[in-house]
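Hey team,

Sharing the CPNE9 protein run so nobody has to redo it. Sequence (519 residues) first:
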Amino acid sequence: RNLLDMDTFSKSDPVVVLFVQGSGSSEWKEFGRTEVIDNTLNPDFVRKFVLDYYFEEKQNLRFDVYNVDSKSCSVLKQDFLGQAFVALGEVIGSQRGRLERPLTGVPGKRCGTILLLAEELSNCRDIVTMQLCANKLDKKDFFGKSDPFLVFYRSNEDGTFTICHKTEVVKNTLNPVWQPFTIPVRALCNGDYDRTVKIDVYDWDRDGSHDFIGEFATSYRELSRAQSQFTVYEVLNPRKKCKKKKYVNSGTVTLLSFSVESEFTFVDYIRGGTQLNFTVAIDFTASNGMPSQPTSLHYASPYQLSAYALALKAVGEIIQDYDSDKLFPAYGFGAKVPPDGKISHQFPLNNNADNPSCAGIEGVLESYLQSLRTVQLYGPTNFAPVINQVAGTAAQVTDGSQYHVLLIITDGVISDMLQTKEAIVTASALPMSIIIVGVGPAEFEAMEELDGDEVRLSSRGRYAERDIVQFVPFRDYVDDSGNQVLSMARLAKDVLAEIPEQLLSYMKTRDIKPRQAGP
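Structure output:
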């Protein structure tokens, strides 16, 4: 919208070039270009970019806009109109998958805005069940009636057809009723609802030389209307139509029923307005070492973030794209807290008990560093209080509009194992997930038990309803060359990979469907 006008006698001829960045890399690679639209400052581009989406990765995108002036394919020969940087998660996490960003990059000029829309090609997961019957088909057999069957074809981009389904043969009738059958939408129309679906009607012959009765064409969109009404198609034989003046048709086929079953995806819920609420809990026990000492796990040098800060940034910077208010409650545990030096296992890092939320990941980092200067590292390592705190919030809204992710960063052996198991089993029935990142050299066997991948977690005879805990030791992700960006990307990829499935498992067990995004 409102692009710069670079042409003297007409308006600009814009094109958008999309660049993508590899995970943990700073190099930009061209992914594709839109078509060029002549003579407009408000182009609506038709060409779509199809990208693989990974919730657990920070997928950085760059959109460069140019005015095409020369016939050269090189963008360096064209006028630069501005650019926008955005993460794919930001577009998907924005309202209705629609994000507007200002274009920048031309000094002293307003470059206009770029509007991005993301939609998931999730119709690839839909499965259709339909049933058809026919009426007064042409008689093809000398001694009996016809033995009709149907053949379905989907059309390809190049105008050819590919067979995608055959019905069974119904013997000796001109009014067959075929059995209901199921077919993936992907097979029927490749996910394109308006693509032609061609259906041929044949009379079966034992020797394989089946006689052609006629054909008709439709589309997935037209077929889907049968959910509310019968649809009748005329079966036409083009050769007969040419030969006989009084030819009407070779019978009719009626679509009796048509139903679609959807497997909802993570993106369906995010687009329907489900918010991910991110809470952080940081280990302030004495085993971390004095924060002022370089040997401490909390030590932040001027050149390098501590393991705690790295883990927090890695996970938080991805999750924040799915949280509209970007306010994150942040707690510490295992420290003596001023003014009276009491041990606390859920003290707010921002020192505000009424509102423990920090503004953005930077706000959490700031409060964390501030707390290191004001509290006394102590012990023991208790997880249950902060898990119960987040579970209490999650229990207030269970309609699928809110989902909570608690990140616990710790250096060691857990002190309240029985209470923590009990808290997790209770939380497994709520809309929440728990990520535990272990920092430092300790052995973390107890954490593996909490991460119920192998054995479902139980407490006092009660089993967890879902597996909601993901544990990883930070040391497994540290890049040998010291590349922190790569370490963070690897860590986030592993700890966040299970979140979409965990969210879906909660929605499924509660039979919560995604809300429909507005038009």
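The radius of gyration is 30 Å.

Ping me if you want the raw files.
A.
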